[in-house]
Amino acid sequence: MSEETDLAVPPARGTEPERDPIEVPGFVEAVAGAVATSDVGALRELVADLHESDLARLLEALPGEDRPRLVELLGPDFDFTALTELDETARLQILEALSTRTVVEGLRELESDDAVYILEDLDEADKQQILAYLPTPERAALQRSLDYPEASAGRRMQTEFIALPPFWTVGQTLDYIGETEGLPETFFEVFVVDPTYRHSGSVPLDRLIRTRRNVKLGEVVTPDRHVVQATDDQEDVARVFERYNLISAPVVDEGGRLVGVLTVDDIVDVIQEEADEDLKALGGVAGDEELSDSFWYIARSRFSWLLLNLIAANIASFVISLFEGELQKMVALAVLMPIVASQGGNAGTQTMTVAVRALATRELRASNARRIVMRELLVGLFNGVVFAVIMAAVVFARFGLADLGYVIGLAMIINLVAAALGGILIPLGLDRLKVDPAVSSGPFVTTVTDVVGFFAFLGIASLWF
Amino acid sequence: MSEETDLAVPPARGTEPERDPIEVPGFVEAVAGAVATSDVGALRELVADLHESDLARLLEALPGEDRPRLVELLGPDFDFTALTELDETARLQILEALSTRTVVEGLRELESDDAVYILEDLDEADKQQILAYLPTPERAALQRSLDYPEASAGRRMQTEFIALPPFWTVGQTLDYIGETEGLPETFFEVFVVDPTYRHSGSVPLDRLIRTRRNVKLGEVVTPDRHVVQATDDQEDVARVFERYNLISAPVVDEGGRLVGVLTVDDIVDVIQEEADEDLKALGGVAGDEELSDSFWYIARSRFSWLLLNLIAANIASFVISLFEGELQKMVALAVLMPIVASQGGNAGTQTMTVAVRALATRELRASNARRIVMRELLVGLFNGVVFAVIMAAVVFARFGLADLGYVIGLAMIINLVAAALGGILIPLGLDRLKVDPAVSSGPFVTTVTDVVGFFAFLGIASLWF
């Protein structure tokens, strides 16, 4: 890194606020102009200082056909790391338009985890074609990562790391780091391994600097409390990083041999993705839906969830049709029934949201499930009674019928209790059946609250009047 | 740290899976037993090896009254860092039950950011009482952090860091780190400051080790691309960390003077909290609702959102009452009308979920809003037509009335287009009015889809028949 040094002390930043280069007026237009006229010089000047993430956001701001053109025009000046910051749809669209040669050259400049991230979503034929053009050692390393299951630690890990034997001294280690070319670009620790490469612990750089030069690594190493298996699911790994505030963790294979290192910046993306998926799933949207997806893709993906909802709505409608006689006799029932169903649907969604999130973060466990179910039940009962009183009063004021007020009040209590039970038991049950509760709970919960709501209100009315 | 060294190389971990100590059967019960009998020896043995995060989860698993007792029994052996890993409700409950002396002693062992995190939620009187017992330099440092606005970078930053002048050599720096007591426990870089403490850049430890000893820090320092202002909101800072994959960033005051450092492990919590709040808000739950909250707190907090929904449901009910005559004439309308409203509500929620999330992650900006609105409109129109055809067929099969099929189909198209528009324009509008769209969009969107759904279906029916 010392080539990058600058003899002058850079100016203090002072109160200068962080500016977003992409949002500077005219910037995106200027880039698009340079791409249109193939003005490589102007283009280089415009994007030279951009961070890879800004470069990615610039690509997203450009029209689809300009994106691969920009990459080809910049040639070796285009940092392929930027592609890892794009959403999948945009990344694949660019990769498909690029020549294999450009992709191969670009991938060779990347750290292994970034290269795997770009390669893994390509279809098998493209992937093999690109791998075939890579030198054998690079190909073998990438292929090994790609052989791990999708979304596993092995796919996310960086295979560049420093591993040394325990009999090396701190002084040797510092000299080795100082003199060796081709070490990882950034690293936070050295790992200690035995002759068969089995991982035994790590020494953080700050501890290395604080230890006397003649001390052996074996004396200063501490076992890593959190060792990741290459086959571990990335979400489980993210949970461990988050829980124990880790900056990095070693990755080992089945034999305990060190095969890579995971750093928190990769994990931040996993945490974000996971929260994103849960949030979208609860809103009835596919986890992989992205802002840059096409109309057609989105329409189809939303359709399937709405179809499920349509079936649920038709079941609820069937329940209503059982009481056609009552509805005919008293039209006020038709006017009021959606209130009971809607209030139940919303209360159920509240409970379900809390349950789904607590299951995702592992806060809701077998050991506290009973307490939470009881609490939700009480909340449902309490709010049921409060809203029963309110609606009874509203109905009396609006229709002058005290009996109708009692009926809606009773139905409200029943449906809010059903909503609480459905809202917590359905996610718990799905989780036990190994079905993702975030994705599947919604339609079940609203079916319960619609059916119970209409059935309780119209049923009690048919008995009462 | 060298006191912790161990001469033997620790055993390789091999394929041993990561175990969760809290979930070991009988563990929580054993701890509760030791607390009940005030058996300090047994207690120390049980919790000695626990990571602070596991200690926190152990506290959460214990009955409320045992939690402060455990802290008092362990005395100086209790690591107060564990309190930062608790949710706010549980943390405050424990702190209120502890003696001021215990809290003061505990806080003195913490890094500044953890101490601030614990202090900031206490009420002013308790906070001042505790601060009064701290030695002046510690009190001043904490008070300075506490003076920054809530949820700002100044509150989250660590005030322990290494800052050196540019004329120091790398060798001097390494020796200083090696010989000085009381440096931060872990650090990843040294910062370079001018005589007035204005920040000019940083040197990561790996670069420090890779540079020759006689080189001056001023020659090897690079300006930090991302300097955080102490008054910056933590969510904006989290966005920058995430976007640029930062591990740490310097924090400066208005004068550009270095006042602290933010590390990614604090930011991971901010990212998680933020996603959590959005998810809960969309489900109609207060962002600060926690699994350990009391029945009473939750019932009240859920009530207010349900009350809003009740008002919306009553507006929809009023719309229905406008068509009492039609409902009397044709009871099938009452049976079918919830389907139109429900389908609109779900389609609206889909669009709203995507819009709220994209606003939160800044992916939805003024520059692409128009394209997204158009796309959602098309999706709504497309799915509206598809579901119109499906429902027309269902209605014809169920009631044998072709006209009723046309009516429900037309209403379905209108409501799904309204849902798309409401789902995207309401969050965009709220965001422009500086109202959090995650919290407030839901009731508005479902009011739109209920009102439009009932009005379109019953209105068209009244014109048609």
From TrEMBL, chains A, B:
Name the principal localization, coarsely classed: membrane
How does the UniProt record describe the way this protein sits in the membrane?
Answer: Multi-pass membrane protein
Q: Which Pfam family, giving just one, matches this sequence?
A: MgtE
Q: Which residues cross the membrane?
A: 303-323, 377-399, 405-430, 442-464
| Residue segments, region Disordered | 1-21
Instruction: Could you list this entry's UniProt keywords, alphabetically sorted.
Output: CBS domain, Cell membrane, Magnesium, Membrane, Metal-binding, Transmembrane, Transmembrane helix, Transport
Q: Domain of life, per the record?
A: Bacteria
Q: Where in the cell is it found?
A: Cell membrane; Membrane
Domain CBS as annotated: residue spans: 221-277
Please give one Gene Ontology molecular function term for this protein: magnesium ion transmembrane transporter activity
Tell me if Amino-acid biosynthesis is a UniProt keyword of this record: no
Q: Which family does it belong to?
A: Belongs to the SLC41A transporter family.
- State what this protein does: Acts as a magnesium transporter.
Q: How does it assemble?
A: Homodimer.
Stated name of the protein: Magnesium transporter MgtE
